[in-house]
C-alpha cells in the first residue's frame, strides 16, 4: 500500500486489455480515441501517442524523492485533439440517452466458488491496520471499528532467508500506544474473532522487499506464513507485493499454505491498478491461477494516474466513478468471479498521493457494477450482483478522518443484491 511506482504510458497502453465495449460519454467519444494497436505506441520527448493520438505526460510525486522511483505517468488527451487522425464523419450525440433496460446480469461462473472463503459476509468491508507509527492515529487492534469485517495487518517483514517473512509489533507503535506487546496483539486477534471478525497478515506494502522467485523461496514463504498463522491466529494472508510478484512461485506457496492450514484459509490480494490492466500481467496471472482458492482481489484504485478501462477506449482519470467502474470491469470481464473483486480506495485525502474520492462515490460505483444504477457516463456491459465489497487504506486513516469510509460504505453493502 501507499507505494508509488514508475509508470510510463507505454506500459499502460502495452497492457493490451481485452476489448469490451462500454457506453461512454459524448466527451469521451469526441476525444477521438482510436482502436488500440500495440504496434502504434510511441513514447518520447515528453510526448506519447498511439495511432496518431498525441498525449502529454507529466511527472507527479507522492512524498518520495523523484531521483529514486517517484511518481507515475498521469496521462490525458491533448485537449481532445486527434493529432492528425481523421475525426469521425458523424459527430457523436451530445448526451448519452439512458438505457431502456438494465444491462444483463453476469452469467453464472463456469467454475464453482472455492469451498473455503473464510466465512465472510456476501459483501464485506476490508481495512488495513497499521503496525507502524505515522501521522494517522495509532490504535490497538482491538479498537478497530466494528464496521470492518476483515482486517489486514500491515505488514510482515522480509528476513535474510529468501522468501521468508516475520512479524512482531513495531517498537514505535508500541511506544505511541503506551506499551503494546505481541501478547497484547495475540489477545486482540482472539477478541476480534469473538466479534465475528477475520484477521489476515499482509505481506509487502510500500517498503516491502519480499521476493518469492524460486521454488525454495516459495517453500520458505509458506513455512513462515504457516508459522505466523499458528503463532498469532491469523485467518489467512494478503499479497501486497508492490515491487512485483512471480505468479508461478507465489501460486505454489499459497497452495502449500492452504494445504497445511485450512480449506477456510482467506487469501486476498492488493495489486496496484497497473498490475490488473491485462491478463498477461503477473498479478492477474496469479489471481487466475489460484482462482479456485482465492477469496478476493481488492485492487488499489488510487496512486495510479489515468488508466485504460475494459472498453479499451480512453485513459480514465483516477478519482472518479468512471475510473473505478471502467477499471474494475477489466477483472470482471477477464476471468475473475464477481465475488472475487472488491474496490480499494483511500480512507482520507492524506492516505494516498492521488485517487481519493468521497465514500459516496465508492457506493455509486458499487451500485453501478452490481445493479446498473447510479453510474456516471461509463456503464459496464452487464451487472455483477456478486461484487464483493470494498477495501480501504487504512483503518487508521479512516479513524483519523472520523470513520467516514466505514460508516458510509459498510451499511450500503447490505443494500446490494
Largest sheet: 8 strands, parallel, barrel
- Could you give the distance between the termini? 30 Å
Mean pLDDT: 79
Order of helices and strands: HHEEEEEEEHHEHEHEHEEEHEHEHH
Structural class: alpha/beta
What general form does the structure show?
globular
Kindly estimate the percentage of residues that lie in beta strands according to DSSP.
Answer: 15-25%
Q: How many domains in all?
A: 2
Radius of gyration: 21 Å
CATH superfamily of the largest domain: Glycosidases
Question: Level of helix content?
Answer: 25-40%
Q: Enter the CATH topology name of the largest domain.
A: TIM Barrel
How would you concisely characterize the structure shown here?
With 417 residues, the chain is of the alpha/beta class. Helix content is 26%, strand content 17%. A hairpin with a 6-residue loop joins β12 (307-308) and β13.
Amino acid at each position: 500500500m501507499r507505494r508509488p511506482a514508475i509508470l510510463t504510458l507505454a506500459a499502460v497502453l502495452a497492457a493490451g486489455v481485452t476489448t469490451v465495449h462500454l457506453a461512454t460519454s459524448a466527451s469521451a467519444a469526441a476525444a477521438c480515441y482510436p482502436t488500440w494497436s500495440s504496434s502504434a505506441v510511441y513514447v518520447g520527448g515528453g510526448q506519447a501517442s498511439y495511432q496518431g493520438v498525441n498525449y502529454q505526460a507529466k511527472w507527479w510525486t507522492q512524498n518520495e524523492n523523484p531521483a529514486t522511483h517517484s511518481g507515475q505517468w498521469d496521462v490525458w488527451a491533448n485537449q481532445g485533439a486527434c493529432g492528425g487522425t481523421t475525426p469521425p464523419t458523424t459527430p457523436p450525440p451530445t448526451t448519452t440517452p439512458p438505457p431502456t433496460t438494465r444491462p444483463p446480469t453476469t452469467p453464472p461462473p463456469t467454475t464453482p466458488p472455492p469451498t473455503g472463503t473464510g466465512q465472510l459476509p456476501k459483501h464485506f468491508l476490508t481495512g488495513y491496520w497499521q503496525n507502524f507509527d505515522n501521522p494517522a492515529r495509532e490504535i490497538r487492534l482491538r479498537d478497530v471499528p466494528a464496521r470492518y469485517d476483515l482486517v489486514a495487518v500491515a505488514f510482515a517483514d522480509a528476513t535474510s532467508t529468501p522468501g521468508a517473512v516475520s512479524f512482531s509489533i513495531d517498537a514505535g507503535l508500541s511506544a505511541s500506544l503506551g506499551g503494546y506487546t505481541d501478547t497484547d496483539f495475540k489477545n486482540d486477534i482472539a477478541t476480534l474473532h469473538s466479534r465475528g471478525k477475520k484477521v489476515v497478515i499482509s505481506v509487502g506494502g510500500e517498503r516491502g522487499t519480499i521476493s518469492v522467485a524460486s521454488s525454495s523461496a516459495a517453500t520458505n514463504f509458506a513455512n513462515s506464513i504457516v508459522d505466523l498463522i499458528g503463532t498469532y491466529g491469523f485467518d489467512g494472508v494478503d499479497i501486497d507485493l508492490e515491487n512485483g510478484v512471480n505468479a508461478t512461485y507465489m501460486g505454489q506457496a499459497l497452495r502449500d499454505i492452504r494445504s497445511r492450514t485450512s480449506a477456510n484459509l482467506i487469501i486476498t490480494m492488493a495489486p496496484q491498478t497497473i498490475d490488473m490492466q491485462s491478463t498477461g500481467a503477473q498479478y492477474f496471472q496469479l489471481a487466475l491461477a489460484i482462482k479456485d482458492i482465492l477469496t478476493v482481489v481488492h485492487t488499489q484504485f488510487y496512486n495510479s494516474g489515468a488508466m485504460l478501462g475494459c472498453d479499451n477506449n480512453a485513459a480514465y482519470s483516477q478519482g472518479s466513478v468512471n475510473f473505478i467502474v471502467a477499471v474494475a470491469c477489466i477483472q470482471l470481464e477477464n476471468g475473475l468471479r464477481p465475488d472475487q473483486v472488491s474496490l480499494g480506495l483511500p480512507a482520507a485525502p492524506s492516505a494516498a498521493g492521488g485517487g481519493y474520492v468521497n465514500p459516496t462515490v465508492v457506493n455509486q460505483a458499487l451500485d453501478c457494477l452490481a445493479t446498473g444504477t447510479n453510474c456516471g457516463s461509463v456503464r459496464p456491459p452487464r451487472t455483477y450482483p456478486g461484487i464483493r465489497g470494498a477495501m480501504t487504506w487504512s483503518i487508521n486513516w479512516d479513524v483519523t478522518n472520523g470513520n467516514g469510509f466505514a460508516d458510509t460504505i459498510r451499511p450500503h453493502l447490505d443494500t446490494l443484491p
